[in-house]
């Protein structure tokens, strides 16, 4: 079930950060359709702006996080809850690392892999 911090959660909006379901059968980590190859969204962390999205995509694709380009406008990494928290602390978006978003992230399943991805739409 999608939980959104967007004031208008009617779908993907511009330059957002999401936590997706790595086991989504329509999503292909090792390739697939370069248009729309993103996992089902579990948690919408909200808008991060154009520069935030560029920064997030660059950080996700850093070898430290092992991410890659998912489709024409998205980059993501396979991360556990603990690694998502590590990423968010490095990404330094206080709106995400405190309050409601932080609580939702802490409630993610331990040890399970998710896809953390930044999406330009």
Question: Can you tell me about this structure?
Answer:
The chain has helices at residues 49-60, 81-91, 94-97, 99-106; strands at residues 3-4, 16-21, 41-47, 68-71, 74-79, 114-119. By secondary structure, it is an alpha+beta fold. The protein has one domain (3-119). The protein has a 6-stranded mixed β-sheet. The chain is globular, with a radius of gyration of 13 Å. The model is unreliable at 1-8 (pLDDT under 50).
Q: Topology of this protein?
A:
Blueprint: E1 3-4, E2 16-21, E3 41-47, H1 49-60, E4 68-71, E5 74-79, H2 81-91, H3 94-97, H4 99-106, E6 114-119
Parallel strand pairs: 1-3
Antiparallel strand pairs: 2-3, 2-6, 4-5, 5-6
Adjacency order of strands in the biggest sheet = 1-3-2-6-5-4
Main beta sheet, described? 6 strands, mixed
Uncertain segments: 1-8
Count up the helices: 4
What sequence of helices (H) and strands (E) makes up the elements? EEEHEEHHHE
Number of domains: 1
Q: Helicity range of the residues? A: 25-40%
Query: How much strand?
Result: 25-35%
- Report the count of strand segments: 6
Spatial extent as radius of gyration = 13 Å
Cα separation of the termini? 21 Å
Shape type: globular
Instruction: Give the averaged pLDDT, no decimals.
Output: 85
SS class: alpha+beta
